[in-house]
Design brief:
Blueprint: H1 2-21, H2 32-35, E1 40-46, H3 49-57, H4 60-66, H5 71-92, H6 96-102, E2 103-112, E3 119-126, H7 130-146, E4 150-156, E5 159-167, E6 171-179, E7 182-186, H8 189-206, H9 234-246, E8 253-257, H10 259-266, H11 271-283, E9 288-299, E10 302-312, E11 340-347, H12 350-365, H13 369-381, H14 385-392, E12 393-403, E13 412-420, H15 423-437, E14 441-446, E15 449-456, E16 461-468, E17 471-475, H16 478-489, H17 499-511, E18 517-523, H18 525-536, H19 539-549, H20 553-565, H21 570-573, E19 580-587, E20 590-598, H22 605-610
Antiparallel strand pairs: 1-2, 1-8, 2-3, 3-7, 4-5, 5-6, 6-7, 8-9, 9-10, 10-20, 11-12, 11-18, 12-13, 13-17, 14-15, 15-16, 16-17, 18-19, 19-20
Length: 611
């Protein structure tokens, strides 16, 4: 019984989310991209609603929520959603069972550029029972009119269309109809007209006849005669190709944005956005042609796989020069301890980045602005940034997050590492900086290494820094700095030796050329969750949660849940928590950010008992 309830709740939540924010790629109707106009500036698609819930249930999170040992907590988590949907049903007369039984296939929403304001277009496929769909629409119409909306009919491209209209700050309208097995809706008549004419003409052409049996006749208003579709857009097709290059299966969702034209469309009356658009060519941002990606779940060995692609046309000048990523080794250096819960390795082309900063700063402040700023900072720290520091750095930056127990507010500490070409040169430059800082810095030793301690006057902050091998390290916790030294010297384990990181690295090497990677990120989800569990059970953690509950509704819900149920045993949750990885690839087409985790089979009940 609870399983059926969960199915209905989750599916209805997905549908509600899609109605607010989605437009489709057109897997049921292969010609769908041809239905949308070329001036479509944003699009989000759920290609097959029926696939969403089964695949979510097969993810590690979905299986965790189905674990009998977590039943009481799962019931609490989705119980509030069920209550919210019941309230929606009371107001509209339409509930989860209606939607779950009727809607099938694709759900899509697009934002389309228009002269006055952008327009919204919606397509929702449904089951064969068109009569029941009409009954649901009638129920929704009755609810809307009871709250002051007006219902009428009009002709759009020679087809009868219903219109819901209400007066708010300005008149709002929704034009809609059911055509074959799809509900089409739009916020403006011209948007629906273009969509409808393109639909009918392409549908009729596909069947090789003037009209489909029972289909309405296309009007003669001229709409669609010179129609240019999103399917003809080079940027859209390039984005689609990038997504399909990495995954052949249909994703759970696909999204596309034309960033510059989206800003131009939504910011027609916004002076700040208009200023940003004027500055875009100066900053080189007009080279961004598309942004988008896809989300998949429970596909083969993958638990989750998300793609985000930023497509760039032409040279990367101006601000885009800041995105000059190189490629190189991404494995954790020896100083990254095995207790690291998160790890990030980034390869930057520092000379290119410096020139990008020069272009931007000199463009705003005048020629020589960056040179003057670098001279001022160089004089302050005692070394020349452009001629001494930048040539010494390789451009590789590493950031590791270490958790120290017992869990407390400041248990999570980050340590930064900058790789250097010459250890001796790095030590010399650091000594000159320390001499310039004077009495604020003291010298300490740990293991075979000398390092520095500086107490910053603002907020009594501590900084520990020094050279360890070919790395300059810096952190705000002495114990973490010493832990990094211990890892380098081999007295504690390193992240590179852990089975969690090795599993992610093996998957990366299978699918991506390691030499093409500009960034790699690793997260040990188990350690992060273990920290949160311990913190939540500590006196300090309970106090922090209570403070957050006074400000945030989500924190308040978590506090109430813990007060009612407590926390489940971490041993029950732990098997479902898997390492996660992310990579950034920079190539001639743009930047490609991929995030993934892999499925693991949780232990059986007998195995849990053995533990």
């Amino acid at each position: 019984m609870k399983e059926n309830r969960l199915n209905k709740v989750v599916l209805t939540a997905v549908l509600a989310w899609g109605l607010c924010s989605a437009w489709a790629l057109g897997q049921i109707r292969p010609q769908t991209p041809q239905l949308l106009p070329a001036n479509t500036v944003a699009l989000l698609t759920v290609p097959d609603i029926q696939r969403v819930l089964p695949q979510l249930r097969e993810t590690n999170l979905g299986r965790m929520l189905q674990d009998p040992a977590l039943g009481p907590w799962a019931e609490e988590l989705y119980g509030w959603l069920s209550q919210a949907l019941e309230q929606v049903q009371k107001r509209t007369g339409v509930g989860a069972p209606d939607l779950a039984l009727l809607f099938r296939g694709e759900l899509s929403v697009a934002l389309i550029d228009r002269p006055e304001q952008p327009g919204l277009a919606i397509l929702i496929d449904f089951a064969e029972d068109k009569t029941r769909v009409e009954e649901i629409l009638a129920t929704l119409e009755k609810s809307a009119t009871s709250q002051g909306a007006r219902l009428s009919t009009t002709q759009v491209a020679g087809v009868p269309v219903r219109v819901l209209e209400r007066e708010a700050a300005r008149t709002e309208r929704l034009y809609y109809l059911t055509l074959e097995r799809t509900l089409l809706a739009a916020s403006h008549q011209d948007v629906l007209e273009n969509l409808l004419v393109a639909w009918l003409k392409r549908h009729q052409n596909a069947k090789g006849q003037n009209s489909a049996p029972g289909a309405p006749k296309v009007g003669t208003s001229g709409a669609g005669e010179t129609f240019s579709s999103l399917g003809d857009s080079a940027s859209f097709n390039s984005l689609l190709a990038e997504c399909q290059k990495l995954q052949k299966e249909r994703p759970l969702a696909f999204w596309y944005v034309d960033p510059i034209n989206l800003l131009r469309s939504v910011g027609q009356d916004n002076p700040n956005i208009q200023f940003a658009l004027v500055m875009a060519p100066i900053l080189g941002l007009d080279g961004i042609s598309a942004l988008g990606g896809a989300v998949s779940a429970a596909i083969g060995p993958l638990d989750w796989f998300t793609q985000t692609h930023l497509l760039i046309s032409g040279p990367r000048g101006g601000a885009l020069g800041l995105l000059s990523f190189g490629a190189g080794d991404y494995s954790p250096p020896r100083w990254v301890p095995d207790s690291s819960a998160e790890y990030l390795s980034l390869n930057w082309r520092l000379p290119d980045v410096l020139e990008a900063v020069r272009t931007i700063l000199d463009g705003f402040r005048g020629s020589g602005a960056l040179a003057a700023e670098l001279k001022r900072v160089s004089s302050r720290i005692g070394i020349d940034i452009e001629t001494e520091l930048v040539p010494t750095l390789t451009g590789r930056i590493v950031l590791a997050t270490v958790i120290q127990y017992p869990a407390r507010r400041d248990s999570r500490t980050q340590i930064l590492g900058l790789e250097v070409r010459d250890e001796g040169k790095a030590k010399e430059l650091l000594r000159r900086v320390v001499e310039r800082l004077g009495e604020r810095v003291s010298t300490e030793n740990f293991g075979q290494f000398e390092y520095y301690h500086m107490e910053r006057p603002r907020g009594n902050e501590q900084v520990y820094f020094g050279v360890v091998g070919s790395w300059v390290l810096a952190t705000n916790q002495k114990t973490v700095y010493q832990l990094a030294v211990s890892a380098w010297e081999g007295t504690v384990g390193t992240l590179a030796q852990t089975k969690e990181f090795q599993a992610i690295a093996a998957r990366i090497d299978e699918r991506v050329d390691p030499l093409s990677l500009g960034m790699v990120r690793f997260e040990n989800s188990r350690e992060n969750m273990r920290f949160l569990f311990e913190l939540a059970q500590s006196e300090e953690g309970r106090k922090l949660l209570e403070e957050a509950a006074g400000r945030d509704r989500g924190a308040r819900a978590i506090r109430n849940l813990i007060n009612r149920r407590g926390l489940p045993p971490f041993s029950v949750v732990e098997p479902y928590l898997v390492p996660q990885g992310s990579v950034l690839i920079s190539d001639e087409s743009g930047l490609h950010f991929l995030t993934f985790s892999f499925r693991e089979n949780p232990p059986s009940e007998g195995q849990k008992a053995d533990k």
